Please model this.
Amino acid sequence: MPARSPAQNEFTHDLLDSGVELAVDHLPDRDTVAITIRVLTGVVDDPPELTGISSIVAQTLSKGTEHYDGRALANAFDALGAEWAVTSGRQTTVARAVCLPEFVQPLIELVAEMLCRPTFPREACEVAVQLALEELRQLEDNPQGLLGEDIQRLTLGDVLGRNPTGERETLARITPEKVRAHWQRNYHAGRIQVAVAGPVAASKLAQWIDRALAGLGRSDPHGRRDADFTFTPARHHRPKDLQQEYIGIALPGAPRGHRDYPTERVMLGVLAGGMSGRLFTEVREKLGLVYWVGAWSEQPRGRGIIHLAASTTPERCEKTFSTILHELERLPRDLTDAETQRARDGLIAHLETEDDLTRARAGALSDDLFYFSRPVGLEARLAELRAVTTEMVADYAARLPRDRLCVATVGPRELSA
Model:
């Protein structure tokens, strides 16, 4: 039976006969409906010799189906006034769409046409591969992007840490036949989570989605798995003739759902929450060490990673590196209630503002399904943030494993520290 949350959100959550997991956030006063369809497959399922193929599948789903060529499918979406996009990442491939309530059923049928009946035209696959190769070429001129690629490989390992775009050697092996075979292996209803927000009845959505996606088959639910990697301290330098030096630091953090996760978010707000964050005021404004500096986290399913990064001059890279770590180290000793409140209020304000967007509600609900396999809702997230105290942030910062760092640098100088 569907389950409803007791909070202000009117959630419906069910496993459909087709094998699709559906959650609906009923918003009767909204003017639009937002749909997020998450397929639990990404670069983690790419064969090593075909890294990037999940991304090619995602890019070519809409280039031709049994009933439409690529142009006709795009025209059909336009006729509904729908906004839509498909993206592929490390663990999931996501299709997002927004339309008026009266067009929800035909929109679902069009998205299902892409997912269930793609033909992967040869020319479209070849173009997608060429675009991916061009993206890799452009990456060579993006030192911040190269830094991100290197730190991801260090922290996430040789499988999950691969570049979702692919590599030159692996992209060269991708053919339309291999694209189709990869789609057949990984696109199953048992791997699909659908989150919908807006003024539409959950019972109707269940019927439409169940019927539209049944063609994928119910088998193969094993895509619902946590990220599998071992965080191993490591260091990597990419020599590059630049005027700046780019530094990336990563250490283990809290996964979604862990009791420390809200505390970590507030801590990162203290460090990098706008122009009042410690990294900006202490490292950039007072010492003038960096061009930019930041801190954030990422959460592969079941895991967590904290990132710190900056760009500086080669001559100041050692000082910048040690100063960033010093700011992290001293936080437990001198954190103030005012800093905690500022960071906490900023996060709460962002959540409450974002909640006004129907597509954000659908996205948050999709995240709930991915991380927790159930709707959680805004009120629960706000309550967790409001409960965070200065003592909790200081204690969490003190417990961070600062001796387990992954460090990547891009530029003319390698760190000696």
